[in-house]
Prior knowledge:
By secondary structure, this protein is α/β, with parallel strands linked by helices. It has helices spanning about 25-30, 40-50, 55-65, 95-100, 115-125, 150-160, and strands at about 1-5, 15-20, 70-75, 75-80, 90-95, 110, 135.
Amino acid sequence: MQVRGFPPLSAPDAELLILGSMPGIASLETGQYYAHARNAFWPIMGHLFGAGPQLAYADRAMRLRQQKVAVWDVLQLCLRAGSLDADIREEVPNDFGAFFAVHPHIRRIGLNGGKAAASFRKYAAVHVPPGAEAVTLPSTSPAHAARRFDDKLALWRSGLLGSPQE
């Protein structure tokens, strides 16, 4: 089935952009990024930016914007049955030229998993502002549960913030 992503959670002064590949079924059903209960994204955002799952979704989104963090997906449209990145076909990327024109302060791009990283390199890397750095992070998806939460958190902290401690 054809799947359409969401608009970015962002403010024009964003300095950090976190990119997934495409929202999964739980997210599409709720209209919220990373809505699956076992996805580690919001717990990680809680540790790093105070935007944890204990807050209402609107409050989490506001907290990230206040912290100059934007969230989006590399893909705008695709064909996919289910939620697995491996099943994505016929990719249509988001308009990163327009995004970076409106968000000129982005300095770091966190890529949530291998599919987001591969699609980003294929479609969006040419639009990255000078001086901005992209880093591939371990997927927060519950489908990638081989890595412990504490390990994911440490890699996300280091990759996004460059510091090993909270």
